[in-house]
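Go through this pair.

…
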Amino acid sequence: MIFQLSQLSPLSLCVCLERPFPKDGKIPSDLEQATGIDREEVLAQLAGKERFPIDGPFEHFGTKKNPAVVYSGYKTRIMGCVGQCEKVEEPGFRVWWTLKTGESGNCPECGQYFTVKALPGANLEEDP
C-alpha cells in the first residue's frame, strides 16, 4: 500500500491511494471496500484518531469577532452545538441548523459564532 499525509482537515491522517482488494470468494472488509471520506474515517480510526470529532475541535467559544472555524466538503454544513446552553446537562442535547460554506452564523440557543470554510477539493455544487 502507498500512504500519503492528507491536508484535508486540521487532523493529520493517512490516506491510502491504492485500495486493497479481497481474495477471490471472500467478503471485503470495511477497509477494503471504503472509499473517499468513508475511507478517511476508517483509516483515522485505525490510527486512533477521530476524523469527524463529535464535540468539534474548538479551542474557544466563538464570538462575532473571533468565530470558531468549521470545515466542510460541501456547499452547506449541518451544525450541531451544545455551547453554553441551560439544557447542556440533558443527555444528547444538541441544537441543529445549517450554514453555507464561506458564511458565518451563530447558534440560536447559546449565541456561539461559527464560520464555515471549504476543505481543499470541496464539492461546492452539492449539499451533503
Remarks:
- Strands lie at 3-6, 13-16, 68-74, 76-81, 95-100, 104-106, 113-123.
- The chain has a mean pLDDT of 75.
